[in-house]
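REQUEST ID: PR-0412
SUBMITTED BY: lab tech R.K.
PRIORITY: routine
TASK: structure prediction, single protein chain
INPUT:
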Amino acid sequence: MADISDSKLILLVEDHPVVAQATSMLLMQIDDSLRITTCGSATAALTELGKTREWHRIFLDIDVPGAHGLSLARQFAKLGMANKCTIITGSNNPQWRAEAVAMGMLGYIVKAIRVEDFKKALQAVLKGDATFLETASPEKPQAIRLTRRQQDVLRLICRGLSTPEIATQLGLTSGTVDDHVKALLMALEVKNRAQAVAKAIELGQIDLHSISK
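STATUS: complete
OUTPUT:
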C-alpha cells in the first residue's frame, strides 16, 4: 500500500450507492494508492471541488440530483477541470460524447459495457489516455410520441401546477389527470414528474419559451 503522501485524489460523482461502491472497488484494484471521495449530487460535487483543485481524476455520472444532461460536466469544464474529467453514464448519446470531446474531457464511458472493458477504460483514464467508449450496439434515437392531451398535461406540469390545478385548466377530473400523468411517465420511461420535465427538455418535447406563458 502506498503512503498517503503518494496517493492520488479521485472524485467520484455517483448517486447510486451500489454503483459507486463497485466503481470504487475497480479503481482500487487498478491502483491501491488512490484516495477516493464519493458524492451523490451536483451540489456535493461542486462543494468537494471547492475544497481543493488537486484532483488526479474526476469521474462524473451526469444523471445525479441537481444536474440535467451535461450541465454538471459543463460547470466542471468552466472551472478548468475538463482535462481531469471522465463522464460515466448509462446514456450512449453521440451528441453528448461529441460535446465531451469538444470540452476537452478526458473520457466518456457508457456503463453498459462488459466489466472487463469498463475496468480497462478506467485504467486508461487513470494513465491519462483519452477514452471515449460506447456500447457495442449504439442506441438509436427513438421518437417518443405523446398524445395531444399528454402534451397539454406535460406543459402544465412544467409550470408547476398540481393535479387539481391541471384538472381545472383542462376541464378534467383529477383522476383523469392522474391517468394521463401515469401514461406520460411510462412513455418517457421516468419515475416522477421532475424526471419527466428533464427528459422532455432533453428530447425537445418542450418549448422552453412556452413554459412561462
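NOTES: The CA atoms of residues 97 and 108 lie 6 Å apart.
REVIEWED BY: pending
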